[in-house]
Give the backbone structure.
Amino acid sequence: MNRKPIMILLSIGIASAVLISAAFGDGLLPVLGCFHDYNGNGALDSGEFGQCVTTPQGDLCMLDNIPCTETVTAAVCPGESVLNAVSDQCEHPVRYRCAGSGAIYHTLAECSGDCSSNANCAVYCPGNLTIRNNVCSADPACTYGAYNQDTDTCIEETCPYGNAFACKQFNGETFCSEMSCAISWDIITNLGSAQGEDDIQDNGPVSDENSCMGQIYIFTGKDRRCRTWGATIAFDDCCRSEDYLFGLAQCKEKEITLARLKGDGLCHYVGQYCSKEISLGFTDICVEESKSYCCFNSKLARIVQEQGRAQLSTFNGWGRASRPDCRGLTPEEFQVLDFSQIDLSEWHGDIETKSQTEIQENLQQGVTDFYDRIGN
């Protein structure tokens, strides 16, 4: 299991959001989205993934979002001030206060008549109002919600899912979703072995006489994988035929090569497995599934491997789908094969006509001669 540090947008809960990006190592552009495991199968299926959009209030998941409920109330102005719909301010005419007596007057003339001089009369705004452009003013207040300058009212948006979920503005309306976004790291896990990790490599150790010193294998296969489902390939299938895969940007070149090998009859199907998952702490969600194959240099090699392994106790099938066993046959294993029990009819169609008995005898004799040479 190979865990890589990958940025994911995630909310802790059944409904979660995920940033599927080039960090997967698959050459994809970042796609901000969210998912919900509706059927509870622990996998991210088609229809369970939605887009996220950026709003002034934060990211909003477009999967199963709902409109917020709107409650409208009047704005509150302090004291005797009145809301001016043009300026969107609570306004009150300025007053004048006599410095000596503290008396309040409506006009400067009234104040000046009672005070010893105009210098003793100062502009005064009652309550919490402040002077702005020769008018006492204050911002309108809301008992609930927020002031809306377009309607000159207080509007409170509430989410039907509950107060824990924020309402967010998008395209002139407000929505909420159970799926919120928060940044986390290191929660994507690559499952299974890496493709080709266990393949037998050519050109092993040799002696001074240039003789092979390692184990010799006959009809060795190569581990090949393709992604058959998941968010990393936009829920397409990169395990289909070569003609279908041609031009699909989300499919890798090695997946197109595998499709060609399968079309030529060179591959044995091992199995399907979850190749990437997201760990949420309380559960794991599969976001990608892959198929594994053992592919050979010839159709004959595949046929002998498929039917020969069933005769040998040294093989336990083809390994696991997440870690296929594509090793070749040792000379000892090859020598004990009963070729009379191996059906080569599929291969016969690809070569000039010979009897199956003749083909089997020539094949086994050739391997025996080779084994005798390396043993001497």
